[in-house]
Amino acid sequence: MASFSVEDFVGDGALKGLLPKLLExxxxxxxxxxxxxxxxxxxxxxxxxxxxxLEIRCYLHDRALMLYGDKLEASGKGxxxxxxxxxxxxxxxxGMKRGHIARFMDRTNPCAADPFPALNALPSRRKIMATALSxxxxxxxxxxxxxxxxxxxxxxxxxxxxxxxxxxEKSISDLKIKDGHIFKGIVAAGxxxxxxxxxxxxxxxxxxxxxxxxxxxxxxxxxxPEYKIGMERLVxxxxxxxxxxxxxxxxxxxxxxxxxxxxxxxxxEAHQLYAKKPMFDALGIQLFAVLHEHVEAEVKDFWPRYxxxxxxxxxxxxxxxxxxxGKLLKDKFISxxxxxxxxxxxxxxxxxxxxxxxxxxxxxxxxSGGIIQNITRV
Length: 378
Description:
Blueprint: H1 6-10, H2 19-24, H3 30-33, H4 38-43, H5 48-62, H6 69-74, H7 79-83, H8 87-94, H9 98-105, H10 143-150, H11 168-173, E1 182-186, E2 208-211, H12 212-216, E3 219-224, E4 242-243, E5 253-257, H13 264-274, H14 277-282, E6 286-291, H15 296-302, E7 310-313, H16 318-323, H17 333-338, H18 341-352, E8 370-375
Parallel strand pairs: 5-6, 6-7
Antiparallel strand pairs: 1-2, 1-8, 3-4, 3-7, 5-8
Helix pairs in contact: 13-18
């Protein structure tokens, strides 16, 4: 799976010398870089070679084929010309493996299990409309989609009258949270299905997560900042614990609870969510990943390759308990994975995306991760 490190994304080609300019102009993470259009490129005076390089690398990144980035860029060919080559030519000239050739030639983006509308078709980063997060395309439904349909509208400055714009701050102010409010979380996507031909019943899906007073007082610790070009890989100075409410004091937040950072399915889910960062940025929503154990080597492998946002440490596993209505969600390997068709399908999907895995850490402690959406208080 392609890394979210900007340095890995640009490689040693024409874009490398452009890094200072990209940082200056705010194109400082991979998901944002991938939504550049021709107008954005012209604004920072990108050459034809640099534009072709960005197009090639965006295409390869979507297909987890970045290992061929430098070779394909050095060929001097544009993406349309490269896609016109035969299988034999791709193998002979660039050493591309047969399976990788099939992925490269498949223009339907085989590594995107949950594709959104093409981001490159958007008018520009500053004009992303809130409707990009439509409930028809997002797997993260519930309160997130309700925010989109109720109040969070962003309009292009060029087409909206000054008095007609609804500011993000005003939109958020309508999302009042009262004591006792119950958040909705997604633990295993759809309804639980019988396993082993109906001989084994799965644990029930918990819809009621936790009341707000419990969530806001959870103690967390920042392990990483939000990734930007050229920054240190980890927070060098250990940050003091903080109350979770500090995370969404100013802006709403989406938190994804990671069972284990080395888990193949956890990595795939985190990668897919962070790939949609420009859409969340347009809505003013922050993204956080929550771990329940701190193994520094595992955090380094996870960030920023699979997740470029802030990583939090929840020592008491309180967010994980909140997803289960106050109890940790547990399941056995045989019943929770081997006899679970949905888990097997998720595993195969992650494998097809080229996600690496390891078995370090205490993953079996919790059955799965989950998402707590749209936490905000004003």
